[in-house]
């Protein structure tokens, strides 16, 4: 069983590889302009430098964003922004693993369909809704832990 899961993991990386590999030069760009990069839970995280400034200025169609996922690469304004959006962005990584190189097209079509129904291409996009729900669920768990004040939870 374990051998099967290793092969499945490799296939997920390969399925998304054209997008992930195409984005890895962003790590060099960030580093050359004062930013940094690191691997975190199987994902290349890139922050700061030109990359961070560009995200802060805004991206076409998305505006200002804390972080943005492209395959197994997540770019962010800063380590704090990456940490704050990690759950949300990991949902997008999983979506890339499911759809592979088709995900950007699938994502844009979902946004277009949301707009056609009178919604917003980003806020009403089902892929964004899923990511926000996962992040909110984790935040609720964290808030619950804080409210328990050391009490044991069942």
Task: Write a brief structural summary.
It is built from 7 helices and 4 strands.
User: Count of DSSP helices?
Assistant: 7
Detail the poorly predicted runs.
146-154
Mean pLDDT: 90
Strand order of the largest sheet: 1-2-4-3
* Percent range for β-strand residues: 5-15%
Task: Please describe the biggest sheet, giving its number of strands, its sense, and whether it closes into a barrel.
Answer: 4 strands, mixed
Q: Tell me the distance between the termini.
A: 31 Å
User: Using only CA atoms, what is the Rg?
Assistant: 17 Å
Helical residue percent? 55-70%
Query: What's the overall geometry?
Result: globular
What structural class do you assign from the helix and strand content? Answer: alpha+beta
Total number of strands: 4
Tell me the count of domains. 1
Q: What sequence of helices (H) and strands (E) makes up the elements?
A: HHEEHEEHHHH
Give an overview of the whole structure:
By secondary structure, the protein is α+β, with helices and mostly antiparallel strands. It has one domain (2-148). 62% of the residues lie in helices and 12% in strands. The protein has 7 helices and 4 strands, in the order ααββαββαααα. It has helices spanning 2-23, 25-32, 49-57, 79-84, 86-99, 103-116, 126-148, and strands at 36-40, 43-47, 67-70, 73-76. It has a 4-stranded mixed sheet, with helices on both faces. α1 (2-23) packs across α5 (86-99) and α2 (25-32) packs across α3. The longest helix has 23 residues, at 126-148. It is globular and about 45 Å long. 25% of the residues are buried.
